[in-house]
Amino acid sequence: MSTSAIDYTIDHPAVAGTPSAASIDEVIAAPIDSKPSKGWWIGLAITGSMLGVGILSISWLFYKGTGVWGVNQPVGWGFDIVNFVFWVGIGHAGTLISAILFLLRQKWRTGIARFAEAMTIFAVMCALIFPLIHTGRPWLAAVYLFPYPNQHGLWVNFTSPLLWDVFAVSTYFTVSFVFWYIGLIPDFAMLRDRATTKFKKIAYSIFSLGWRHSNRHWQHYEKAYLILAGFSTPLVLSVHTIVSFDFAVSVIPGWHTTIFPPYFVAGAVFSGFAMVQNVLIVTRKYFNLEHIITINHLENMNKVIVLTGSIVGYAYAMEFFIAWYSGNPLEQFVFLNRALGPYAWAYWTMVTCNVVFPQLFWIKKVRTNIIGMFIIGVFVNVGMWFERFVIVVTSLSRDFLPSSWGHYVPTAVDFGVFIGSIGLFFTLVLLFVRVLPVVSMSEIKAVLPGAQPSRH
Amino acid sequence: MNKNLLYSVTALFDTPDGIIHAAEAVRNAGYKRYDVHTPYPVHGMDDAMELKDSKLGFITLGAGLLGGAGVFAFISWVFLAAYPNVIGGKPYFSWPAFVPVTFEITVLSAVLLTIGSLIVFFFKFPNNSHPLHDTPYMKNVSSDKFGISIQANDPKFDEAAVTALLSSLHPLTVAPVFYDEEELRHTWTTFDPKFLALLVGVALFVSGSTYLHLNKLLYLPPFDWMSNQNKFKPQTPTAQYDDTRMMRSAPDGTVARGFIPYPFKGMPDSAGKYLVNPLQPTSEALALGKTKFLTYCSPCHGNFARGDSRLRGQFPNPPTLHSDKVRNWPDGNIFHVITEGQNIMPSYASQVSREERWAIVHYVRALQRAFNAKESDTQ
Q1: What pLDDT, on a 0 to 100 scale, did the predictor assign at position A11?
Q2: Computed over its alpha carbons, how large is the radius of gyration of chain B?
Q3: Which of A381, B79, B213, B313 is most buried, with most CB under 10 Å away?
Q4: Which among A22, A137, A182 has the least Cβ separation from residue B115?
Q5: How far is B155 from chain A (nearest CA, A)?
Q6: CA distance A163 to chain B (A)
Q7: Closest approach of chain B CAs to the CA of A217, in angstroms?
Q8: The domain spanning residue A318 has which CATH number?
Q9: pLDDT per residue over B228-275, tens digit each?
């Protein structure tokens, strides 16, 4: 018996080489201190145009009403909920990296946590667009969404999954934002102390709140970070669970299943990691952060992708098995209809992108190849978008009564709003890389070789 | 500005081992008011400084329990007391469905109160006017050096002794930090003109945008499409018809469903002669008659039909219904007057249904009998 050559006790260093703390400051603050390059402006022009398309589409939607969307009976939920679930899912990677990997003492998270958290916040912002605008007149929507004392003496229905969603997503956004901001405070202080212009100095002073790197503060700060990580972990699991309740609590065949919460959470982490991996690949190349966001980090992310991708694949198979095993003809029909019906093209796109391609990550050469992993990451995001489309549209378009069947075709405005949300996301990402440190400097310094006293 | 007051004596070190050693030395020398500044949390520093465990967790626990219990109680109150409503055939107190919101609010209140108290009470932030800010010392510990600072307000503080102690620990530099008392004491006051201007600005912005939103924006197209629809309203004048009214009257001879035309228009005598009260004077009919009489008749005729309502004297006096004339009328005459009106009394046919009119007649008869009771009625 030959012993394996892999030594599982080796902990990959969190950064490559032995950079000094001062050089970390230089390299991470470089994008903030320097003028944006031509490439950045081109990128901003593209994402800004996409955002503009979205703003025009939403303006038209507000002008004419939600009739400009393709939704109608029987498919009353279309692109709005598909995109909402898609974006909320993207957001899950950030919290997973910043909270769960923190609790699991995974040092490699330090290089990517800040970026992933920022992407969480931007993704949830994109997600929140859709439930807001689907009300048609969002400035009146507070009446339906939030419990406030009113002259009718009425309260919102606290037992409705859609209301749970409001609370879950807004809590998730708030807590993620607080988590992100708390992590940024020491970096703001560091940027304040190296600021060269008065404007930067005042801005970073305000945001740093007057942080002094005091150990008497670090002590409480670390405790707070641990508490936040402890709360974010069940929170992130609860958010996509509650999003899945929007479907699972109903009685529509194909939605009414108990597998939905874990299946949705795994899918969310899957798509979120793919998105973070894609954006990080571009960022580390562009800003010369290859020694901080190392190939090991990306490989670890790919391992998470292949794990969650396999869970998602298992869930697809299990849905079919349960449909057959339940003996319920409606369930059986819905799943046959998914694979063979009018939306079969979407179903097989989903299966190919989510189940087949990520399995290539079992091969070490693929999961350490930048081009290869980037392409697979894009496939995963396309596949996960189609997963939500398949779940929402196939179940609604053909449910109990064949005479009430219909076919959903999204309109140009549907696509416009979706393109706009993509534009918003990447516009925010582009602005983020220019004004804030994309890697947590205080965390990276703490895991550099020789950063901790030798006795401890 | 003259920075002349000593805040502390500081020393900078190059390595984490150096700063741990320095912290232990300063602690062993008996100083209490000192602090260590490091660009990242250094492991073992809490022990070296002998700091007690952070109490932050207790705030989290309290806030979470308070928020969770509070929102659960609130939802229960909504479903059990404020607006009980059967939803999906479930009991009013269907607590499993309260769990998601309870959980989210527990997390939200725990996190926000923890972070709020961390910043305000534990850190005493925001504070951008600390003496250590804007010093070379702070710029160094912000980047890659490790510093220790012994404050001048320590009971054991003596500048020469502290400088000697820190110098003996092989630091990179030892330097005093001064501050300007006036600068440190500067605070924003409530009546600072800048602050007042900010308040006025915020007030103008909020009230202005609220006014625009609620009074202008919502009445502009397309937001008024629900209220201004492409159709005529009954009271709108129009050139389309000769009588300029949008509301059309029914063609002559039209009879509404369930409506029986009144055959004795302008013929009170015939009404008295031919009409008979179709209702039995049961207690239900009298109760109905009383309700309708008090609603429609009593404002003029008085609660007991004596013509003594509050309108007496402000109006051509409404007659009493206890006069011999009315008492001797047949039922049909009273019905006729309610239906058609008389003198300045208008018709009540549109407000009071046929059956209700006959019930009023019964009630008027009962009132008349009560005010003119015979000896036999008391037996």
Answers
A1: 65
A2: 45
A3: B79
A4: A182
A5: 19
A6: 8
A7: 6
A8: 1.20.1630.10
A9: 888 888 888 888 888 888 888 888 888 888 778 888 888 888 888 888
For B84, residues 6+ apart whose C-beta sits below 8 A from its C-beta are B92
Strand B5-13 versus strand B34-37 pairing type: unpaired
| Separation between Cα atoms, residue B344 and residue B157, nearest integer Å | 103
- Under CATH, which number does the domain B268-378 receive? 1.10.760.10
User: Each residue of B333-358: pLDDT tens digit?
Assistant: 999 999 998 888 899 988 898 899 99
Q: Is there a contact between B45 and A157 if contact means CB atoms under 8 Å apart?
A: no
pLDDT band of A1, cuts 50, 70, 90:
very low
Confidence of residue B1 (pLDDT cuts 50, 70, 90): very low
Distance from CA of A56 to the nearest CA of B (A): 15
Q: Does A417 touch chain B (CB under 8 A)?
A: no
* pLDDT tens per residue, range B89-120: 899 999 999 999 999 999 999 999 999 999 99
Query: CA-nearest residue of chain B to A168?
Result: B104
* A186-200, A203-217, B101-115, B309-323, range with the lowest pLDDT: B309-323
Please answer whether residues B293 and B360 qualify as being in contact, where contact means their C-beta atoms are separated by less than 8 angstroms: yes
**How do the domains of chain B map onto residue ranges?**
1-188, 268-378
* Residues from chain A contacting residue B78 (CB–CB below 8 Å): 147, 155, 158
When divided into structural domains, chain A yields a total of: 1
In a domain? residue A346? yes
| Contact: A158, B78; criterion CB under 8 Å | yes
Q: HSE, CB side, 13 Å, CA atoms: give it for residue A98.
A: 37
Complex ipTM more than 0.85, yes or no = yes
Of A139, A212, A223, the CB nearest to B54: A223
CA B70-B72-B77 angle, 5° bins: 95
* Structural domain boundaries, residue A420: 21-147+154-447
**In this predicted structure, what is the pLDDT of residue A449?**
82
Whether B63 and B114 have beta carbons less than 8 Å apart is answered as yes
Q: Given an 8 Å threshold on Cβ–Cβ distance, is B122 in contact with A217?
A: yes
Lowest mean pLDDT, pick from B45-49, B69-73, B180-184, B351-355: B180-184
Q: Does any CB of chain B come closer than 8 Å to the CB of residue A151?
A: no
* Largest interatomic CA distance in chain B: 128
**Average pLDDT along chain B:** 89
Residue A141 within any structural domain of the chain: yes
- Is B28 in CB contact (< 8 Å) with chain A? no
A113 phi and psi, to 5 degrees? -65, -45
